[in-house]
Design goal:
The protein is an alpha/beta fold and 226 residues long. The chain has 8 helices and 5 strands. It has a single domain, classed as Decaprenyl diphosphate synthase-like (Undecaprenyl pyrophosphate synthetase, 3-Layer(aba) Sandwich). The longest helix has 24 residues. It binds farnesyl diphosphate.
Length: 226
């Protein structure tokens, strides 16, 4: 969800106002993907590296997350969306951690789309914590890919099909590194607060035109499809 800061700065607003506008865009994205039957939508709301931002921006983001969880919960329940947080939450303020746990518990039985919010998340952190847990917990043998995936924070989620980055940058910035091995990447020039149905549909259209070969040849896929 890149571009909140630039969106605000070009309007002479504070970066926090950009994040507040970004929250509205997040709401539009959840609605868009839930209406199209997506099984899961994951947003990168705070990376492990975002801790390095100015203290006041980090605190304003935490306040926004607390009020967003409170404000959005009834709508998420109404839409049968299951909320899940991934990332290292240990250093978050107690109030935020509490809201996160309450929201996960309140939506845990919902059968609709899973809305995953990555907070304090980093792809390298995820792989490392999975490896450490496996070493601590696994008793026999070496993990295969499937077993290892069950230790990642995204365990149980469907494979990542499409990774969209807004804001014009073309990099993954430590998002779902393991999970994006065969994801289609789509980079949009739109700043996140400007995200709307047209831009999201454009990303889905790009995805629909891609041929996903997973290491096979195009001819092999044709035989398989026939
Ligand atoms: C990156 O844009 C955006 C963030 C670090 C924060 C994103 C958070 C939200 C949109 C709120 C969503 C809240 C919930 C609970 C899901 P940037 O600040 O790096 O933008 P820039 O590249 O223009 O500076």
């Amino acid at each position: 969800m890149d571009g909140n800061g630039r969106w605000a700065e070009t309007r002479g607003l504070s970066r926090s106002e950009g994040h507040r506008e970004g929250l509205k865009a997040t709401r539009r994205a959840v609605e868009f993907f839930a209406n199209r039957g997506a099984q899961a939508l994951t947003v990168f709301a705070f990376s492990s590296e975002n801790w390095q931002r100015p203290r006041e921006e980090v605190e304003a983001l935490f306040d926004l997350f607390v009020s967003a969880i409170e404000a959005e919960l009834p709508e998420l329940i109404e839409r049968a969306v299951r909320l899940r947080f991934i990332g290292e939450r240990e250093d978050f303020p107690e109030q935020l951690r509490q809201r996160m746990t309450e929201a996960e518990n309140a939506t845990g039985v919902n059968a609709g789309m899973t809305f995953v919010v990555a907070l304090g998340y980093g792809g390298r952190w995820d792989i490392l914590q999975a490896a450490l847990r496996w070493v601590r917990e696994a008793r026999n043998g070496e993990p295969d890919f499937e077993t290892f995936e069950s230790y990642l924070s995204t365990a149980g989620l469907p494979p990542l099909d499409l990774l969209i980055r807004t804001g014009g940058e073309q990099r993954i910035s430590n998002f779902l590194l393991w999970q994006s091995a065969y994801a289609e990447l789509c980079f949009l020039d739109v700043l996140w607060p400007d995200i709307d149905e047209t831009a999201l549909q454009a990303a889905l259209d790009v995805y629909a035109r891609r041929q996903r070969r997973f290491g096979c040849t195009g001819a092999q896929l044709q035989v398989h499809d026939a």
